[in-house]
């Protein structure tokens, strides 16, 4: 059910009858205030301008043509020509009855599924995953889950960095460690950070090591078996580390989704040759460069985009051009969505413009680089450890669970230690994820343990607790999930909850369109709050409540619980029966 879409279609049909051209914007929105009803049709003003008539008169005509008598009990014209629609309680009840027995909870499925490639997480394997990878990983995963729920064909692409020059240094160091007889797993790579640091120190200080490292990069990239073998050992261990983090984070990425930089190796030279051939890339001081007038600076100097270094080396940029070709031409993507931090915005603009010119990106493939802001510490500076180092993601998640356990224990009355541990895991991980996902993607945000673990406000614990409240009511009422009864909407709180329950699909559409999971976070928070308000005002289990009323309210509760769980699942956040 998508009320906004239904009203949009009706308005567009009326527009046609009024002789308005196709594409006239109906400007339909959810009402921002209760006085404005449930939905507003704001398109009459724009339409009147086009028809050169009086907007209020046109609004009047529109209302007559719309004929919303079956679903609205009030359609009011306000101000210069706003149309405020107040939905009918029994119409809402009817829609909810359908949603309550539907496996998809009344959310329709994409009638025209698209192939969407989503590039997310993509850590560099030379180092351990750190907080900087959190956002790409969880925002990407929430969007992927939403797209799949809507019915699109999603192809996850974990564009892991496994091919840079650091790998020469790392495998040269690994070779020596193995020669010393150290066990790979437990010693050499148990801590990727330490390993990287040790290799880097040798690179800087030890005579001959840097040369050997450079030599190993060249050998590796040209397919030398010995270097490849060392490299593979390193990569496998590093991937295993990432997989541990994915599992802890409840992220859906698997090994099958890994399409690392190295996978594009054989495509790079042909692509560079093609760009030269097409006269898109030109030689400049020994390097091959694409000069992009589209991204020229204020003085009119084109933006340089280097695709091959002096000496023949390829770059991050070259690989991204190859990735465009693979995703658009070979996989046939209708849309490519890439999540990285905002500092890479220029890079992806350069990639897109170049790839389109060269035909590496089909005209009908939409290319969305979705940037995100930085996670800040409470001091307002990029989040660091107390000593100023990068915070390892695995350690951050462990701390989250420990902190959550303290919070859960405080509230728990009759839970076993094992139950507390399990709940703490879900709350801790959920808290970190929700705190991040609920922020506007493009802004920086402040990481605060206290705020994210609070039971008040828009937090995972608040939502998880709200869910357990509903479940506890349903347990006390002794009703099963497939309980069925007529829904009747009387109280204002029931009506508010009803409208919200029917807006899940509208929210989902918006999340997918803008790649903004924070909209779903807002929705779920509002849904949980409206449920709490409803529950306070509308008794369910109290003595004296009429059976029909009680059963109707139980139906609203069941649907609320299911939608909360479904919504949180799209964010990759787990729920529990009790806490
Ligand atoms: N590995 C890169 C980084 O850590 C992110 C890769 C994003 N995807 C891409 N196609 N470039 O910054």
From TrEMBL:
Keywords: Aminoacyl-tRNA synthetase, ATP-binding, Cytoplasm, Ligase, Nucleotide-binding, Protein biosynthesis. GO terms for molecular function: ligase activity. It is found in: Cytoplasm. Residues 463-579 form the DALR anticodon binding domain. Its EC number is 6.1.1.19. It is an enzyme of class 6 (ligase). A motif ('HIGH' region) lies at residues 123-133. Residues 1-87 form the Arginyl tRNA synthetase N-terminal domain. It comes from the Bacteria. PANTHER family: ARGININE--TRNA LIGASE, CYTOPLASMIC, ARGINYL-TRNA SYNTHETASE. Belongs to the class-I aminoacyl-tRNA synthetase family. Monomer. This is Arginine--tRNA ligase. It comes from Alishewanella tabrizica. The lineage of its organism: Bacteria, Pseudomonadati, Pseudomonadota, Gammaproteobacteria, Alteromonadales. The gene is argS.
């Amino acid at each position: 059910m998508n009320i906004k879409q239904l009203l949009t279609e009706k308005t567009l049909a009326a527009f046609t009858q009024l002789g308005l051209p196709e594409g006239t914007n109906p400007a339909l929105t959810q009402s921002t205030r209760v006085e404005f009803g449930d939905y507003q049709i704001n398109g009459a003003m724009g339409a009147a301008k086009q028809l050169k008539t009086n907007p209020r008169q046109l609004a009047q005509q529109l209302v007559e043509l719309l004929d919303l008598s079956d679903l609205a009990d009030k359609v009011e014209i306000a101000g210069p020509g706003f149309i405020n629609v107040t939905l009918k309680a029994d119409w809402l009840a009817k829609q909810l009855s359908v949603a309550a027995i539907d496996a998809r909870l009344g959310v329709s499925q994409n009638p025209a599924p698209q192939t969407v490639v989503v590039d997310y997480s993509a850590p560099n394997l030379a180092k351990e995953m750190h907080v900087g990878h959190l956002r790409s990983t969880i925002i990407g995963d929430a969007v992927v889950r939403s797209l799949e729920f809507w019915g699109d064909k999603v192809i996850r692409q974990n564009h892991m960095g496994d091919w840079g020059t650091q790998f020469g240094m790392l495998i040269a160091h690994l070779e020596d460690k193995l020669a010393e007889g150290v066990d790979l797993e437990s010693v050499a790579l148990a801590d990727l950070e330490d390993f990287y640091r040790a290799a880097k120190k040798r690179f800087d200080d030890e005579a001959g090591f840097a040369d050997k490292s450079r030599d190993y990069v060249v050998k590796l990239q040209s397919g030398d078996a010995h270097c490849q073998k060392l490299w593979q050992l390193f990569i496998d261990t590093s991937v295993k580390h990432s997989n541990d983090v994915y599992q802890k984070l409840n992220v859906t990425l698997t090994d099958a989704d890994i399409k690392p930089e190295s996978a594009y190796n054989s495509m790079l030279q042909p692509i560079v040759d093609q760009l030269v051939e097409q006269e898109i890339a030109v030689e400049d001081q020994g390097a091959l460069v694409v000069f992009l007038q589209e991204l020229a600076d204020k003085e009119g100097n084109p933006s340089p985009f280097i695709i091959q270094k002096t000496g023949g080396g390829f770059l991050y940029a070259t690989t991204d051009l190859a990735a465009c070709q693979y995703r658009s031409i070979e996989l046939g993507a209708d849309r490519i969505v890439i999540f990285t931090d905002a500092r890479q915005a220029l890079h992806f603009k350069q990639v897109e413009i170049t790839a389109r010119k060269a035909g590496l990106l089909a005209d009908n493939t939409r290319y969305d680089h979705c940037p995100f802001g930085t996670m800040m510490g409470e001091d307002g500076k990029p989040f660091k450890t107390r000593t100023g180092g990068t915070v390892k993601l695995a350690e951050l998640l462990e701390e989250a669970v420990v902190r959550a356990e303290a919070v859960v224990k405080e509230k728990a009355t009759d839970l076993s230690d094992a139950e507390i541990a399990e709940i703490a895991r879900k709350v801790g991980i959920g808290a970190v994820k929700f705190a991040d996902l609920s922020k506007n993607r493009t802004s920086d945000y402040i990481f605060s343990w206290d705020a994210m673990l609070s039971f008040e406000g828009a937090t995972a614990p608040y939502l998880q607790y709200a869910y357990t409240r509903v479940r506890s009511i349903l347990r006390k009422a002794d009703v099963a999930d497939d309980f069925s009864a007529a829904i009747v909407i009387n109280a204002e709180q029931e009506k508010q909850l009803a409208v919200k329950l029917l807006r899940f699909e509208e929210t989902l559409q918006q999340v997918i369109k803008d790649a903004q999971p924070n909209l779903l976070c807002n929705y779920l928070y509002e849904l949980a709050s409206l449920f709490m308000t409803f529950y306070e005002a509308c008794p369910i289990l109290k003595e004296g409540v009429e059976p029909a009323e009680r059963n109707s309210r139980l139906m609203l509760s069941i649907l609320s619980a299911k939608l909360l769980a479904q919504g949180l699942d799209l964010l990759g956040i787990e729920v529990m029966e009790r806490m």
